[in-house]
Amino acid sequence: RPAMPRPEATRVLVVANQKGGVGKTTSTVNMAAALAQLGQRVLVVDLDPQGNASTALAVEHHRGTPSTYDLLVEGTPLAEVLAPCPDLELLSVVPATIDLAGAEIELVSVVAREQRLRKALYADPRVSEQSVDDAGEDRFDYVFIDCPPSLGLLTLNALVAGAEMMIPIQAEYYALEGLGQLISTVDMVRAHLNPDLSISSILITMYDGRTRLAAGVAEEVRSHFGEQVLRSAIPRSVRVSEAPSYGQTVMTYDPGSPGAMSYLDAAKELAQKGLRPQEGQHA
Ligand code: ADP
Ligand code: MG
Fold first, then answer.
1. What is the pTM of this model?
2. Which value does ipTM take for this structure?
3. Smallest-distance ligand from the CA of 54
4. Which CATH number goes with the domain that contains 194?
């Protein structure tokens, strides 16, 4: 594939929505894989104790594997907890083990507990706010943080670590329910902890173009969030949902499928959005 220009600095994207099952993990791994296929250096941080992103990217995540838990709680350097994704040369993963379930509680008594992930990421020279001229070949272009389905301390760490959010929204009846709570959390984080945070991308997932309901929900999301919504919606597709059971993303499992092609389009759009949100965006 033709090389795509690298972003000026590392873009740290938080994939969050406190609702479960909306496509956070699926979108994280497929967007990450698509960007890696486009020649970008990508890191996925699995911040969900379930470890679904680790499974989908085929990296070890049994208890005892160096993981996000060590990064957050033990202060282990990033270099010691990341693993290469076997399928995609430019993609690395910090896996999540079940230990991470305890981190939510264990971090409560730690100083600057909501800054742990940010500090851990930026302590590594490959995660850089510097422009590309100053960065080495091995600098990460994108870091995706796959959040658990809650707004606890783990998600808070992600919101403090990243400058951008990608919110997957499932095209179904209750799609917008709970988004108010997410947006007020983002406002709170922006006011007190991370003024740079913006909602850069909203991705409509599991879209079924044959139903009026899905079309209606997509329209509602677009009228509410405008330019923040990526033009490419991800269709509901069995190929997308079965890829993880083969330890693959749909990008390698079935690259010609509609699901893979829409993730590729969405990844290109995300890349084109650049570093800073446009003027006049919501939130
Ligand atoms: P979350 O991380 O938000 O909990 P997941 O990404 O795990 O959500 O997705 C929830 C379920 O929906 C999973 O079983 C996944 O395989 C399935 N899924 C996600 N996206 C699609 C899609 N485009 N088509 C079909 N199934 C999907
Ligand atoms: Mg998930």
1. 0.95
2. 0.99
3. 2
4. 3.40.50.300
